[in-house]
Specification:
The complex is a heterodimer of chains A (1006) and B (312). Chain A has 1006 residues and is α/β, with parallel strands linked by helices. Chain A is built from 36 helices and 27 strands. In chain A, the strands form eight sheets. Chain A has a six-stranded mixed β-sheet. A five-stranded mixed β-sheet of chain A has the order 5-4-3-6-7. In chain A, helix 17 crosses helix 20. The longest helix of chain A has 37 residues. Chain A is globular. Chain B has 312 residues and is α/β, with parallel strands linked by helices. Chain B has two domains: 236 residues, Alpha-Beta Barrel (TIM Barrel), CATH 3.20.20.70; 55 residues, 2-Layer Sandwich (Alpha-Beta Plaits). Chain B is built from ten helices and twelve strands. The chains are: A alpha/beta (1006), B alpha/beta (312).
Chain lengths: 1006, 312
């Protein structure tokens, strides 16, 4: 096993004094902490859970050992030791005395960066560090809150300096875009009832209900909601975790099924005021759910401060915070995925790498979601019908107790969902009885009828279908972490209900009114999707900037028979997308060249222009071509839909965990440049592959091999971690409910976490392709082909961030053809890397069967990983963001067309988990809407004709973004596309805001 | 630096090929800029395109101050006091420095390219031309200085089915134009600057007689076969945008039956380009010509055109 290499901090002359002083300081502080808890009876209550004292030991030391201390919490007593005992639960290790002093005085955000940047790290169980940090916060939360407020003021001021002069005309321009509307040039064959599919007759002003919801959406602060974790914990305390109260071991699926049912039966059924869609994922107006069996306990240190943090501040009541600390978090401290994995595998290397942030991030530590449930099944059969089918599977296959236990768990879960639906029906009836407004009373009575029918029985109307889908989605959010749970092809699945409703109407007037109702209903559904936010710890709000729960909806494309699928509902969804400009649901559109119309593609462009960022557009034919290697049934392949950000899976039939990890390709390059050592972590992690300074690399191929060796080392570690996490999911949190809604699980009698689905895969996101391609191009061209720069010289410049060599920096950025410049060689290099990744990942044995898929999108990790990466041979400076997804570097070419052609030349066969290509297009203010849309259409259509896979737009100028940074109040709904998902610009972390501003801006030069 | 069409007949220098232009004709276009112009308008937006010979450009904004160039110049034409100074009297355009300049701050302006090279550069974007109804625009400088070359280039583009457009100042031999270029052009954008011949001679270096005459005859030809001929009027503050001149141009075009024209708003950014090649810039201190134009000036011109029945 690899060992941590302690950084050798030489401390000549005066070091002893320094060592003593820092060590002394730490000791004094820990003693003070102990004294407070030992002497103040009011504080002692925090040292216990409802199940007894919290007993643990935390050590603190520096890498060099100049500081060493430990604090121990045992049976309500706190003591301090000068040496860290061997049985310490967790040790915090600081890079140096300086780092330790910095930690003691730094504001919260800076402390987070210290952790990210390896100025400190932990060894051992992080759970206990979280407890310890909570106890620190018990003493210091007033100071911490003041510090956060000070930071907020500071950030406001620095944002202000980006744009000291407010330019109201810029926000006005965005607002004016909403006022303009085009008319459709033709009507698609699948559109049966809409006169003009662009629906230009409607604006948000026609929907006062939606307008009010939109205001609420922006004005409502989210609250931490403990309803679900409390019920979950209650159930487990009563019924046991590993074994039942009578001592017999639990079948994990059944344990989970009964717990789910208990939660669903006992949750408060809520119908939001004035809503047409019943049910909520939390008990708050907007709630954040701590998923305590996953990463929920990471909120522990912030129970006092979370309402005050800079990004994603959540309110929390004192009582709820206390319940979390006292009753809920302690129960899960050792039972969550991460800590179980750690103790079962003895804090393995693969996990320790993950916990250093710079190399890869395993999403399985918090979620397995990234799935589209089979909503058509619940619409067609209801829980009643599905249960009958499962029972039939049991009868057909009576022999195997394990398989039938899995099936039994699915049935129990569905009963839980149906019970929730019935509770909603009752609640709607109660609300109706006390409702004064007659119109609303009728709506509530209808809603009560709807919820009585669905989800138990098949849906018959659009109202029933939409409610059934939402209630089912609520169940998915209760069972699984709300990260990437997706909605699939809603236009396809809802069209039959829309058509059936329309067919019943006789007059045009009735039909027009019904279309309006359908828009309003879908609008309400969109707002339901915004009723929750991810319950992230502060560090994750920085690491995953501005991401909501990314519930992807996919429109258009072809139907299972391969025919044009664009229909009335496609355009209704686009209308709602355009009017509301919400970050979630995450809108994706399939465009099938030759099958979908220009009218449809133009509408996608127009909606992108109005909203500035959505929907993301996919080339149907190319995505399918890339997936063909997995031998999905042709009809299933035609039914693909995006999950989470952009990743293709087979809707309702596929456990695709398409974001099992985010991996930093650039880290492999840095390790190859440093013979296996990762520079920021100062950690000799990978194998020896050669020392540049010793002249070990005689050819580019030798260096490329070194890069691949480091890359495969990281892949192997991350896959190992994924497999271990998978086992924890199967035990801690199987997903019987989702399994009931994924084709194959009941038939196979196997939970979705174990491979029950018809199709299985796991998808990676590889980050930094453009940066690595460009860096390798520089090494190849300048060092080996043209011999203009000795490798050691380039390496020295990289190590010193080019500070002493501006001429070399200029040369690498100006004289080497980068990816996106139209260079065949650079495209070949990018294809070579993607091919290697694909060929290496795909056949790795998969724990659920199936394959690994490979994608090139980055969420916000191009910024996070960039922060943790030094300068690169491509000339990218230390700490700067990578390019988002696989978007070419902004200076690769002056012409956007070169970028598009190069991205389109990537072989789709190697990109099976999609890509994110960000394009910034800014129409001139002088352009008519028709001209602006026509230009956008020309770009997208040509890019797709050339074989481009995916494209997402940001239709906004840097000036506007700067203005928004400084004057956020005027831009609350300014939507931007990060890499795969949408965010509100003003809620983003500063680094991400600046990255968006600096991205290349194409458009008209005037 | 003045050239006349008669004198220049060697192969031209290409200033730049710019892809993804949305402003130089319909759709998405690639623009090929030729170097050299028979006119010498004081406000020229592309001052580096005036002369037909090679030049050296120094961009202070790109310069990283590494001074690699100083020792590479065999004639000692480069020196640094505070910023880099190019002594253009000493420089013999050997371009030793530009090869060594890592940042590209020193660069060669104008490059000889074969017809095939140019075609290859633009043809890659043909799919974009096709979806957008775009194509290639020849601009400059003045492409008609190189009739034979341009004729062959256009002919080649046409064999590839690419849309073509020429931007011209109108100072050319019309018979040769009709013979060599016109058959291959889908559209012509034709600049008309000043109606007063004296003023034209003063600001643009030549009389406008031939330009107006050519336009009149070209208009008749284009009207006959339905080809696009779009007159464009650059609005130069206090030079071309006076009420008198605009009225004059509108009258001239109106008499011919022209229904559509383009008014080009003034762009002051050319001063920077002028400095890069060390060209004289008599307008630098002119306040109007160093700032963005006021909206009223454009509006006034638009109104005059509309009154004359021409859509601006």
């Amino acid at each position: 096993m690899q060992q941590h290499v302690a950084a050798q901090h030489q401390t000549p002359g005066g070091a002893v004094q320094k060592k003593r002083s820092t060590n002394f300081l730490v000791n004094v502080l820990l003693h003070a902490m102990a004294m407070f808890f030992n002497r103040r009876s009011s504080l002692r209550k925090y040292l216990a859970s409802d199940n007894g004292w919290l007993n643990f030991t935390v050590g603190i030391r520096t890498e060099a050992g100049s500081v060493e201390s430990a604090i121990s919490f045992q049976n309500g007593k706190v003591s301090v030791a000068h040496h860290i005992p061997a049985n310490a639960d967790v040790v915090v290790i600081l890079a140096s005395d300086t780092a330790l002093k910095k930690l003691l005085t730094a504001p919260t955000t800076e402390q987070v960066y210290m952790l990210l940047k390896s100025e400190m790290r932990t060894e051992g169980k992080q759970t206990y560090l979280l407890m310890f940090l909570f106890l620190v916060s018990v003493l210091l939360h007033n100071q911490q809150i003041k510090g956060l407020e000070k930071e907020r003021a500071h950030f406001r001021k620095s944002a202000f300096s980006e744009c000291p002069q407010h330019r109201p005309e810029l926000s006005r321009e965005l607002a004016e875009r909403r006022a303009q509307r085009m008319v459709a040039e033709s009507v698609d064959p699948g559109v049966k009832f809409l006169g003009d599919p662009y629906l230009p007759q409607f604006t948000l002003e026609d929907f006062p209900r939606l307008k009010k919801f939109l205001d609420l959406h922006f004005d409502t602060r989210a609250q931490v909601c403990i309803e679900m974790p409390k019920l979950l914990t209650e159930w487990h305390k009563k019924n046991g975790f590993d074994a039942k109260p009578d001592g017999t071991p639990w079948v994990p699926e059944l344990r989970r099924g009964y717990a789910f049912k208990y939660i669903m039966e006992n949750r408060r059924p809520i119908i939001r005021k004035d809503d047409l869609v019943a049910g909520t994922t939390t008990s708050k107006e907007v709630g954040a759910l701590p998923y305590v069996d996953a990463a929920g306990t990471y909120l522990w240190p912030e129970l006092f401060t979370v309402p005050h943090r800079l990004l994603f501040p959540y309110d929390i009541t004192e009582e709820e915070a206390w319940t979390l600390h006292h009753e809920i978090f302690p129960y899960w401290a050792d039972k969550n995925f991460r800590e179980r994995l750690r103790s079962r595998h003895n804090d393995p290397l693969a996990l320790r790498i993950d916990e250093r942030f710079a190399v890869y991030f395993s999403f399985k530590s918090s979620a397995f979601s990234h799935i589209i449930p089979d909503f058509p099944r619940i619409l067609r059969l209801g829980t009643h019908g599905i249960i009958e089918e499962i029972r039939a599977d049991m009868t057909r296959d009576p022999g195997d107790a394990g398989r039938n236990a899995a099936r039994e768990a699915m049935i129990v879960s569905l009963e839980g969902l149906a019970a929730y639906s019935k509770n909603l029906a009752r609640q709607a009836a109660d609300d109706a009885a006390s409702e004064a407004d007659l119109k609303r009373r009728i709506e509530l009575e209808n809603l009560s009828g709807v919820c009585t029918r669905v989800v138990e029985y098949p849906a018959r109307t659009l109202d029933e279908a939409v409610n059934a889908i939402w209630i089912s989605m609520v169940g998915a959010h209760i069972e699984n972490t709300n990260a990437g749970l997706s909605l699939g092809r809603l236009d396809q699945w809802l069209q039959p209900y829309f058509e059936a409703d329309m067919a019943k109407l006789e007059t045009n007037q009735e039909r027009e009114a019904y279309i309006k109702h359908a828009i309003e209903l879908i609008g309400c559904f969109f707002f339901r999707c915004t009723d929750h936010l991810p319950c992230m710890p502060y560090i994750a709000t920085i690491y995953f900037g501005g991401s909501s729960s990314d519930q992807a909806i996919t429109l258009g494309g072809v139907n299972p028979d391969g025919e044009d699928a664009v229909n009335d509902m496609t355009y209704l969804f686009l209308k709602v997308t355009e009017m509301l400009s919400l970050r979630d649901p995450n809108m994706n559109a399939r465009y099938h060249p030759g099958k979908n119309s220009d009218t449809y593609l133009k509408r996608l462009c127009e909606v992108n222009l109005t909203t500035a960022a959505t929907p993301s557009m996919h080339n149907d034919a190319v995505i399918m071509e890339s997936l063909r290697q997995f031998n999905y049934d042709e009809r299933d392949l035609n039914d693909w839909a995006a999950v989470g950000c952009v990743e293709p899976t087979i809707a309702g039939k596929h456990t695709g965990h398409t974001n099992f990890q985010l991996i930093n390709l650039v880290a492999a390059l840095e390790m190859a440049l440093n013979n296996g050592t990762h520079p920021l972590m100062r950690w000799k992690l990978g194998p020896d592959t050669g020392v540049i300074e010793n002249g070990d690399f005689k050819s580019f191929e030798q260096f490329y091999e070194a890069f691949l060796t480091q890359f495969t080392f990281l892949i192997d570690q991350s896959i190992q971690l994924n497999n271990w996490y998978a086992a924890e999911h199967q035990y801690v949190r199987p997903t019987p409910y989702i399994s009931a809604l994924i084709d194959g699980c009941s038939r196979n009698g196997l939970d979705a976490t174990k491979g029950g689905a018809k199709y299985n895969s796991s998808g990676t996101a590889i980050i930094g392709l453009a940066d690595v391609t460009d860096s390798l191009m520089v090494i190849k061209k300048l060092v080996f082909d043209e011999k203009k720069v000795p490798f050691a010289h380039l390496k020295r410049a990289v190590d010193t961030d080019f500070r002493n060599d501006p001429a070399l920096h200029a040369m690498v950025t100006k004289k080497v053809p980068f990816f996106g410049s139209g260079s065949d060689e650079a495209v070949a290099m990018a294809n070579r890397i993607t091919k290697f990744a694909h060929d290496y990942y795909t056949p790795i044995p998969h724990y659920r069967g199936g394959k690994y898929t490979v994608g090139f999108w980055s969420m916000s990790q191009h910024v996070a990983f960039g922060t943790l990466t030094g300068a690169l041979p491509s000339g990218r400076r230390a700490g700067q963001p990578f390019t988002p997804g696989l978007t070419p570097e902004p200076n690769a070419s002056r012409s956007l067309l070169d970028n598009m052609r190069d991205v389109a030349r990537l072989d789709p066969h190697n990109i099976t988990n999609n890509l994110a290509f960000n394009v910034k297009i800014v129409p001139s203010p002088h352009d008519t809407r028709e001209k602006a849309v026509q230009d956008m259409f020309s770009y997208v259509k040509t890019y797709f004709t050339l074989g481009g896979m995916q494209m997402q737009m940001n239709v906004v100028t840097s000036d506007t973004l700067r203005d928004a940074m400084a004057y956020p109040d005027s831009y609350r709904n300014l939507l931007v596309r990060i890499s795969g998902y949408n965010a509100y610009f003003v809620t983003l972390h500063r680094d991400l805001q600046l990255e968006l501003i600096h991205r290349a801006e194409y458009g008209i030069e005037r | 630096m003045k050239s006349t069409p008669e004198k220049v007949q060697r192969s031209p220098l290409i200033l730049d090929i710019k892809g993804n232009s949305l402003d130089d004709g319909p759709g998405i276009r690639s623009v090929v800029f030729f170097k050299g112009c028979p006119l010498s308008c004081v406000w020229c937006h592309n001052p580096e395109s005036k002369g037909s010979g090679e030049e050296i450009s120094y961009d202070a904004k790109e310069c990283i101050g590494c001074d690699t160039c100083l020792s590479t110049c065999p004639r000692g034409a480069l020196s640094r006091v505070n910023s880099l100074y190019v002594d253009r009297n000493r420089c013999d355009l050997c371009f030793a420095c530009t090869g060594f300049c890592p940042s590209g701050a020193l660069s060669r302006v104008g490059r000889e390219m074969s017809i095939e090279e140019i075609a290859a550069k633009v043809i890659v974007d043909k799919p974009f031309f096709e979806t957008s109804g775009g194509g290639v625009t020849l601009s400059g400088g003045e492409p008609t200085l190189f009739m034979d070359f341009v004729s062959q280039l256009l002919s080649l583009l046409k064999t590839h089915g690419i849309g073509t457009l020429l931007e011209t100042c109108g100072q050319f031999d019309l018979d040769r134009f009709m013979d060599r270029l016109y058959p291959y052009l889908d559209a012509i954008y034709y600049d008309i600057k000043l109606m007063d011949s004296k003023a034209h001679e003063h600001y643009c270096g030549v009389s406008n007689a031939r330009i107006l005459d050519n336009f009149t005859r070209l208009h008749a030809a284009a009207a006959a076969d339905g080809r696009t001929l779009l007159p464009r009027i650059p609005l130069i503050p206090d030079i071309t945008d006076s009420t008198e001149n605009i009225t004059g141009i509108a009258g001239f075009l109106g008499c011919l039956g022209v229904k559509k024209a383009a008014l080009l708003a003034y762009n002051p950014l050319w001063h920077e380009k002028s400095a890069k090649i060390g060209a004289d810039d008599p307008c630098r201190d002119n306040h109007l010509m160093s700032s963005w134009p006021e909206c009223e000036r454009l509006e006034r011109a638009r109104e005059i055109f509309m009154q004359a029945g021409i859509e601006p």
